[in-house]
Amino acid sequence: MDFQQLADVADKWCSNTPFDLIATEETERRMDFYADPGVSFYVLCPDNGCGDNFHVWSESEDCLPFLQLAQDYISSCGKKTLQEVLEKVFKSFRPLLGLPDADDDAFEEYSADVEEEEPEADHPQMGVSQQ
Q1: In a domain, 109, yes or no
Q2: Taking a C-beta distance cutoff of 8 angstroms, is the pair 130, 124 a contact?
Q3: How far apart are CA 129 and CA 126, in angstroms?
Q4: Does residue 26 fall inside a structural domain?
Q5: Is the dihedral angle over the CA atoms 39, 34, 68, 30 positive or is it negative?
Q6: How many domains does the chain fold into?
Q7: Is residue 106 predicted with pLDDT exceeding 60?
């Protein structure tokens, strides 16, 4: 995928997140992103013919630790798309952006389902005769 197509994907992704694509540098294949309150990172995109992966980094000391999840994801097996990488970065930065963790909601719904199923008094116990 050429760099302009990648930049278009990034623009589209930004429209659904708090991030803005603030700079692109085609020769370095670099895209810089920013969101309030001071959350910034950049992505280096691999060349078409190269087997390299995407690379994410931040020049902000406050942001860098939050990128570990995305960096681990990128270095795991398999090719990743820019969309997948950006989604993982967004998930990593949710706490810094003041947003709830997406996984917390799923866990709460799951917990609520489990709690509703507790009354088991109607079920016979194993080895206990019903006579």
Answers
A1: no
A2: yes
A3: 8
A4: yes
A5: negative
A6: 1
A7: no
Token pair of 53, please?
A: 């992966």
* Mean pLDDT, the chain, whole residue set: 82
- How confident is the model over 110-118, as a mean pLDDT? 47
Q: Two tokens at 69?
A: 């999840």
Domain encompassing residue 49: 3-97
Reading the block at residue 19, the tokens are 């991030």
Q: Token pair of 110, please?
A: 């799951």
- 129 residue type, one letter: S
- State how far the Cα of 43 lies from the Cα of 87, in Å rounded to an integer: 12
Does residue 129 belong to any structural domain of this protein? no
Angle between helices 68-75 and 82-93 (to 10 degrees): 150
Residue 57 to residue 80: CA distance in whole angstroms = 16
* Residue found under tokens 């939050």: 66
Residue 111 lies in a domain: no
- 6-11 long-range contacts, CB within 8 A, separation 24+: 6/31, 6/45, 6/82, 7/31, 9/81, 9/82, 9/83, 9/86, 10/43, 10/82, 10/86
